[in-house]
Amino acid sequence: MLLQPDMPYTEFPPDLRLQQFVECYWCVKSATQLNSFRPVFPDACSDIIFNFSAPLLYEEHGKISCNQFQSFYVGIQTAPIFTKAGGPTDLLGVRFKNQGAWRFLRRPLAEFSNRTASLKELDEGDLHNLTEQLAFLSVSERIKIIELRLLARLGNEPGWDMADQFFSSPSGSIQGFCRANNLSERTLERRSRERIGVSPKIYQRIVRFRKASGKLSGFDGSLMEFAWDMGYYDHAHLAKDFREFGHFLPSSLMH
To answer: Do 152 and 202 lie in a common domain?
Structure first.
């Protein structure tokens, strides 16, 4: 998260044993304070974040709020978050793939979508109390300790089922997927809200928005053909998702 071009942002790959669940570790460090709020767009992921610096500020509908948590979970988003640091920044995050957060937190995640929650509220284990231990360590040392805590939880993960296949590659017709795999739509809906935080349809749309927005940067062809290639019905369908999830139009990324 906090993918801001004028802040030092670095990603680190997870241990091979965690790659099914963790997309990356990331850090943001800056000795100066940004003067404006920056958007963080929905990416179909969720994050655990450790803050070793000033509280983060959020802006929503003209109102500013302050996140005082030292360790917190950011659930899956369906709209941008506008945020900035209240001073010098030192953040370390764990970005989870689709249902990766659920595998470790074992909490129904629907109640945390579009929400930032204290990690202490979610986790009964030993993740939420790591901030003080990690504060004066290097980034690599911090990641090593967090990774050991995550690896220690791997032994009790639930078995693979057909819903996992959809979460890993959520394209095509949901009805068709359920029929082909002898899975009821109600079951997929329940598991998606529990393990991802949103319905299968919303999750599918966010994944497509992330893919489309990544490919559209610098694109100079036909938006209609681009929309078809990305699985949208037409340009209007593409624009609708960009307005909903990004609060901007596709054309704004083209030049």
So the answer is: no
Q: What is the pLDDT of residues 110-145, one digit of tens each?
A: 999 999 999 888 876 678 788 889 999 999 999 999
Domain boundary among 108, 134, 156: 156
**How far is residue 130 CA from its own chain's centroid?**
21
Q: How far apart are CA 153 and CA 172, in angstroms?
A: 33
Same domain, 191 and 225: yes
In a domain, 243, yes or no: yes
Query: CA 14, 4, 140: angle at the middle one, nearest 5?
Result: 30
DSSP conformational letter for 19: T
Residue 3: pLDDT band (50, 70, 90) is very low
| Structural domain span for residue 118 | 9-156
Instruction: HSE, CB side, 13 Å, CA atoms: give it for residue 193.
Output: 8
Collapsing DSSP to helix, strand or coil, 82 comes out as: strand
Residue 170 within a domain: yes
Look at the pTM and tell me if it is higher than 0.70.
yes
**Does the residue 4 lie in any domain?**
no
Residue with the larger pLDDT of the pair 198 and 86: 198
CATH of the domain at 30: 2.60.120
* 131, 156, 181 - which closes a domain: 156
Per-residue pLDDT, 86 = 76
- Tell me what the mean pLDDT of segment 180-196 comes to: 94
Integer Cα distance of 175 and 181 in angstroms? 10
30 near 43, Cβ under 8 Å? no
With CA atoms as reference, report the closest residue to 196 among 124, 129, 96: 96
Q: Alpha-carbon torsion 146, 81, 7, 43, what sign?
A: positive
